[in-house]
Amino acid sequence: MRVAIVTGSAGLIGSETVKRFGHDGARVLGIDNDMRAEFFGPEASTKKTREELVKNVRGYEHHGLDVRDASAIADLFKQHAGKIDAVVHTASQPSHDWAARDPQTDFGVNATGTLNLLEAARKYCPEAPFIFTSTNKVYGDTPNRLPLRELEKRWEIEPGHEYEQGISETMSIDYTKHSLFGASKAAADLLVQEYGRYFGMPTVSFRGGCLTGPAHAGTELHGFLSYVMICAVTGRPYRVFGYKGKQVRDSIHSFDLVEAFAEFLRAPRPGEVYNVGGSRHCNCSILEAIDLCQQISGKKLNWSYEEANRVGDHIWWISDVRKFQSHYPSWTFRYGLREILDEIYRAIA
After folding, report:
1. If you average pLDDT over residues 161-187, what whole number do you get?
2. How are the residues of the chain apportioned to helix, strand and coil, as percentages rounded to the nearest 5?
3. 3-state SS string over 38-63?
4. Cα gap 155→176, rounded to integer Å
């Protein structure tokens, strides 16, 4: 690989991608203007990660561009036309709560920003695989219509259901409440598919569950496992919103997700879509996460419960990753739930 462009390069998945490609000897052009600090405050800033990448990753070149700036994005692609072998788009506004407060910024970053990158890629590197980190929120609240049963510490799908092993890409994204964040990401997801199917570009949308790892700057509005552990370690109060705290999430380590990116790059397919997450291999409810974080940290979490659930929140989400595994059988999980939380704890403590 000669040149790779990575957006959101100082974020959780972006930084993991930078390190992976840099290790392979690629020249990595990172695009990140630290909007995470604007979204969630100074504690969520990616500045420290950016500085570490610049210092430690050979061949890394940082660009503080805004993905909404079409001309600046096009100029960067143009400067390296003929050399770009991969585009990995991880930049986003990631919170459905935040999106409701500023829909125009949310849509501008998530949808228009993606369009700007796709157009630049179509003009200057149409043969380069284009990887997009989408989200399971494109399915809206349709998963909440699944037949669920209440267990002691989690909700679980009825045995024998077609989605018992996880929700597949067959679930409709129509006739559902997405949240404005889900709508902006769905628009971007469809654009990525269309540039693959209409223009024949090797594009892919990875519809992620909870993406996590020790580099995650978790906040109350985004970064589930990381934020629970932060609260456990620091004594900060944690709030549980609705569903008795039994809502289930699957979590995938940033390393495992980026390895999936690498597999796609070796054998890209145009306009593809994959659900990707921890699957049955790695998932937990909020109550189960609280128990684990208390066990690992040795501290009691100060948490409270509010009956009102977050709008658009899933009661139960486990990704069915079998489609991706069938296309890329060499890919497998390296990290389980305990290993992920152990790493997060060490990074915080």
Report:
1. 96
2. 45, 20, 35
3. HHHCHHHCCHHHHHHHHHHCCCEEEE
4. 21
71 CB burial (10 A radius; 0-12, 13-18, 19+): exposed
**pLDDT higher than 80, residue 216:** no
Residue 285 pLDDT greater than 80, yes or no: yes
pLDDT of amino acid 58: 94
- Contact in structure between 274 and 205 (CB atoms under 8 Å): yes
Q: Which amino acid is at 308?
A: A
CB atoms within 10 A of CB 230: 23
Residue type, 291: D
d(CA 270, CA 82): 20
Burial of 170 from C-beta contacts in 10 A (0-12 / 13-18 / 19+): exposed
Q: What letter does residue 155 receive in the DSSP assignment? A: E
How many angstroms separate the CA atoms of 205 and 135, rounded?
9
How much is the pLDDT for 222?
66
Which of 133-147, 193-207, 218-232 shows the lowest mean pLDDT across its residues?
A: 218-232
Residue among 141, 129, 138, 160 at smallest CA distance from 21: 129
Computed over every residue of the chain, the mean pLDDT equals 95
